[in-house]
Structure formats: structure tokens, C-alpha cells
What we know:
This protein has helices spanning about 5-15, 60-70, 85-95, and strands at about 20-25, 30-35, 40-50, 80. With about 110 residues, the protein is an alpha+beta fold. It has a single domain, classed as Aminopeptidase (3-Layer(aba) Sandwich), CATH 3.40.630.30. It has a 4-stranded mixed β-sheet, sandwiched between helices. Helix 2 (about 60-70) links the parallel strand 3 and strand 4 (about 80). It is globular and about 40 Å long.
Amino acid sequence: MIxxxxxxxxxxxxxxxxxxxxxxxxNDIIGTVLCGHDGRSGSLYHVAVSEEYRHxxxxxxxxxxxxxxxxQEGFGHAMLFAYFENTTAIQYWKKNGWEALPDVLYHYKxx
Length: 111
């Protein structure tokens, strides 16, 4: 059975309730953090803020909310990945205290 992206994200959110965050202005979604865990590590996925709302602390607030919830659940660390060419994201994460792991190589296989 092929599931849509919406169905897969909905299933993820059901497995990881309350860790993700949505920022809204009126009825418009202006930012999101998809966050959850595998029982061992917390993970942040797809952190995004609409371009016109960047540099206003929205990402920081969303990320801190998600990390606080992970910490309350007893997780001592969280992981994320950023593409090498996404230098804006890499600078953002570094500026906010995230460290690149030199001994970890993220692997990928097309299915």
C-alpha cells in the first residue's frame, strides 16, 4: 500500500505526539518543526520558517519547545541532519550550540 506524504507524517505525529511545533500568524502556518524520538534519541526534522518571518526568533522558540519536551521525557540528547550545501542551516545550528559529529556518517539508500 502506497501512502501519501500526508498519511506518513500523520502516522509519525501519532507515534510522537506533542513533540512537533507549528508557528502560525492568523490562519497562516509560518513555521514548523517535525520532532520525535526512536526511544533512544530525540530527532529534529524539517525545521522551517517562511522566508519573510526569518530572523525573528521563531525557529528558536519552536526548537526550544520541542527540545524541552524531549528533555521532560528523559532524553539527554537530540540529533538532526543538515545537507553540506545548506550553509545557512549549518551556520544556524552551529550558532545555537549544535555540534557536527565528525565520527558519524549518515547513509542513504534509495528504495
